[in-house]
Design goal:
- The protein is α/β, with parallel strands linked by helices and 414 residues long.
- Helix content is 45%, strand content 18%.
- It has a seven-stranded mixed β-sheet with strand order 7-6-5-8-9-11-10, sandwiched between helices. The chain has a four-stranded mixed β-sheet with strand order 2-1-3-4.
- Strand 1 and strand 2 form a beta hairpin.
- Helix 3 runs antiparallel to helix 16, helix 14 packs antiparallel against helix 16 and helix 15 packs across helix 16.
Amino acid sequence: MLGKLLKHGELTVIGPDGKAQRYGAPDPELNPVTIRLMDRRTMLDLVRDPTVGAVEAWMDDRLRLEQGEIIDLTLMVRRNLRWEDRNRSSNFLRGSGRFRQWLNTHNQRSKARKNVAHHYDVGNDVYSLFLDSDMQYSCGYFTDPSNSLEQAQLDKKAHIAAKLHLQPGQRVLDIGCGWGGMALYLHRVADVDVLGVTLSTEQLALARQRAEEAGVADRVKFELIDYRDVTGEFDRIVSVGMFEHIGTSYYPAFFRKVRELLKPDGMALIHTIGRMGAPGSTDHFMQKYIFPGGYVPALSEVMKASEPERLIMSDCEILRLHYMYTLRAWYDRFTAHHEEIVRLRGERFYRLYAFYLAGAMTMFSDGGMVNYQLQFMRNRWAAPITRDYMMETEQRLRALDAEQESPLRQAVHA
């Protein structure tokens, strides 16, 4: 299996009997990796389910890295399976895979809340160790790959705010508001009122705390509520990193709700991880350990679901490499806090999340994942007829140099 797979990079595998086998060839872009398999069960697990088998063996210390880091191993495997280099494949899932995908992502209200808690209620103390100071847990916007994570996340907020074409006094709904950073930013730079909704109790508590500390709790509010239960009318809707948790069977309901909540001249901006090419399925590892109920959509799936609601996709931007830089920064910060994370959650948790961040990064460097920023309108006259307004607003927001020292870390550890 490895002999056929590995053409780029040097991998040495030491088996339970102590014998070493070498695969691949030197590659200046890939660090050599040596792994030791501690028993024959590990070998069987790797053949049966390579991703889950590898991470479970690494968590159990049955797979040991004797040279290189986990990110070097995941990058080597993914580089040899680069999306652009694969043979053309079928556009349709097989019947059993399609049913399994539907079953895993059929996220009714009770299941959706449980799925969110599985990942986002891990603990603010952990997330604060590797996210930026504003706790943005989504793709940053790197105007320069050498920019800091903090700058990239600030630029991401300016990029999205510019596309929303905000006016003072407007009412904005933030679906999947996280720890409140986007909502607070939009209020600060555009003088709008924001309602942020989440299903995470950990995120809700900190978001409300931040609004209180900023003295804007009367205009930036946060609620623990499913987006399907939101009522009222909004001038703008923004959703960053939440669409991946909806589940394909609920895409039509999502866009039906967006249309229902938007005023006739309203606008929505959906920021989501997306897959290049045709629809697919969520891999076993992510479904089991990281994002149960999650699915990354193909653009065709988004379009199909939005079209019946007569929502106009008025702008579409594809961010190809920005999440690669974001995830690399998260991985480096996460691994730099190894001892503290082990103290908080244990070695198995540390290894699980290190593998998740490393593997996710390679999905954007060599796999089939990108980010979509999709602007929808109910009325074709809702924004100027050229994109100049986006660029002009974004330049103005950056010129404000609004980055401030966040009290978030002190709040998290208080």
